[in-house]
Amino acid sequence: MRGGKYSKFDGGTRVPFIVSWASHIKPQTSSALVSQVDFIASFASMLKVNLGDGAPDSLDMMDVLLGKSHVGRKEILGEGIDKSHFLRQGKWTYLQPKEGPAVNYFTDIELGTSLDPQLYNMEYDIGQRENVAQLHMDIVERMDKRIEEIKAGKYTRK
């Protein structure tokens, strides 16, 4: 995958993980979007703990973690090392334009920083090599607007 730690590319944020619980989870794979912040609400749900507003960005993904569902988050907002943002919604990943170096000088890792909007179709371009932003400006505008809504709001979830 393109990028690495602190990058807006998926190589900096996508982390596969294994959930194992003998006699509760059948071996399987899932591509559902889940964030580590979702563990808070998921485990609270499992333990019947009311969080109130204690974890406002966390979503209950226990059914996904247990393999009972393959429907994860509708979106994930992330931030690169330079305080620039990216948004994953379904098959689309959008990287907001930002001025700055394209590569981290110390690690030689691509950061995803560009003055141009970047849009990638993750269904067929998991390596994020084909920027299709100019072909789908309506999606770019919608996702850019959503990032600004999230940043202006109290929570990342709708």
List key phrases describing it:
single chain; 158 residues; alpha+beta; four-stranded antiparallel β-sheet; 3 helices; 18% helix
Percent of sequence in beta strands: 5-15%
Strand order of the largest sheet: 1-2-3-4
- As a whole number of angstroms, the C-alpha radius of gyration is 17 Å
Largest sheet: 4 strands, antiparallel
Q: Number of helical runs?
A: 3
Shape: globular
Low-confidence stretches: none
Distance between the termini: 29 Å
- The total of beta strands comes to 4
Percent helix range: 10-25%
N-to-C order of helices and strands: HHEEEEH
Structural class: alpha+beta
Can you give the mean pLDDT?
Answer: 91
Structure in words:
This protein is of the alpha+beta class and 158 residues long. It is built from three helices and four strands; from the N terminus they run H-H-E-E-E-E-H. It has a four-stranded antiparallel beta sheet, covered by helices on one side. A hairpin with a 2-residue loop joins strand 2 and strand 3 (92-95). The longest helix is centred in the C-terminal third of the chain and has 16 residues, at 137-152. The mean pLDDT is 91.
Produce a short descriptive summary.
With 158 residues, this protein is of the alpha+beta class. The chain has helices at residues 38-46, 62-65, 137-152, and strands at residues 75-79, 85-89, 92-95, 118-121.
Topology (elements, then pairings):
Blueprint: H1 38-46, H2 62-65, E1 75-79, E2 85-89, E3 92-95, E4 118-121, H3 137-152
